[in-house]
Amino acid sequence: MTIKSTLRSEQLTLLSDYPAIRLSALPVLDQRLRGTTFVGLAPRSILNSPQQTGVDFWSLNPYIGCEFGCTYCYARYAHRYAVERARDAGKLSEAEFHDFRGPHGWEAFERRIFVKERLLGALEADLGRYMRTARPPDGPTAPIVIGTATDPYQPAERRFRLTRQVLERLARCEGLNVGIITKSPLIARDVDVLRQLQERSDLEVYISLITLDARVIRQVEPRSPLPAVRLRALARLTAAGINAGLIVAPVLPGITDDRPHLEALFRAAREAGARFVHAGPLRLYAAVRDRFLPVLEAHFPDLVDRYRRAYGGGRSNAPRDYARALAARVKRLQARCGFPVNDGMIDRYRPRRPRGGQGELGL
Ligand code: SF4
Q1: Structural domain includes residue 162
Q2: How high is the pLDDT of residue 10?
Q3: The pTM of the whole model exceeds 0.90
Q4: 129-133, 136-140, 245-249 — which is least confidently predicted?
Q5: 67 CA from centroid of ligand 1 (Å)
Q6: How many domains does the chain contain in total?
């Protein structure tokens, strides 16, 4: 849902808020038996502006890092840069850096979760800035998207309730334009506050699910909720009148992009009351390759060469022809399943900056 620059702003916020504090000295709030540690932050700012990130929306992420640990997750950038910059700024010794980073570099994103404690003070100040600049009298209100670089309803939210606090504050505002992206059924806990928010503002909730195939989910998303659980959450939201739909991000070439596969997913979302569907292809950033390509080799070895060709030469985005063909397929399926037809991405949240050229990948 976002681009690299959005993620960079996360690490800049993280570092600038703690000019004199060593990262390893931050309070440990909780630890799981499997090794995940939750570290407290008290940020001065929580809402990232379009000027900070280079996208057309404001973004908010109550956590940095995500326990769900999806192998294709581009948000690994945020964590990796945060830890590397902390080391470069002298806030982590070399030994601490290796401990934070984990043996392969990608573990930290899943096992060192930064929790933005006491975020309401920061949000209050940021809302003043937002109201002054994001609501021009002669134009549309800029969206606020929650969950662009981490899942706002990952398991930690059950205890820390940061996302709920943010929503309660936003529900007291008038005329906002809010999007929420999550894979977690925990969002259904907050139906009450979502309804309040929707009474005064535009709201879109995107339940994220890439396939109905639980086997594939477990191969590429080690700790995410299973498909049936997410669809039940979607049904609970829509039954409560929440404007909710499905986001299929990413569509995995050769794994989840065939027509029967996508159609079954779209129809399941429709049965759960989804009001819209969006879908977009995999982006394979450098920080994601270390995590995703070994999984591809283990479970889909026949696809490895195809991926290496398609995403070779430093390309992160799917080849243009592939993206066009996928968008056309998504549009046909949207029409066939009774959804509004769109370009396959979330148009309102489309990055402002154009992307570079692409190679070839046939469907
Ligand atoms: S749930 Fe979202 S933020 Fe969390 S690991 Fe998966 S893709 Fe990344």
Answers
A1: yes
A2: 46
A3: no
A4: 136-140
A5: 8
A6: 1
Kindly give the distance from the C-alpha atom of residue 221 to the centroid of ligand 1, in angstroms, as a whole number.
8
- 324 lies in a domain? yes
Q: Is 123 contained in some domain?
A: yes
* Separation between Cα atoms, residue 263 and residue 265, nearest integer Å: 5
Q: Which of 7, 66, 106, 110 to mutate for ligand 1's pocket (most ligand atoms within 8 Å of CB)?
A: 66
Which of 183, 184, 282 to mutate to test ligand 1, by most ligand atoms within 8 A of the CB atom? 183
Instruction: Please give the distance, rounded to the nearest whole angstrom, from the Cα atom of residue 182 to the centre of ligand 1.
Output: 8
8 Å CB contact between 63 and 114: yes
17-27 pLDDT per residue, tens: 444 456 667 78
- Spell out the residues 6+ positions from residue 214 whose beta carbon is closer than 8 angstroms to its own: 226, 227, 228
Domain carrying residue 199: 42-59+118-349
CATH number at residue 167: 3.80.30.30
- Residue of 1, 73, 163, 210 to mutate, ligand 1, most atoms within 8 A of C-beta: 73
Q: What radius of gyration do the chain's Cα atoms show?
A: 20
| Helix, strand, coil shares, percent, the chain, to 5 | 45, 15, 40
- Does residue 300 fall inside a structural domain? yes
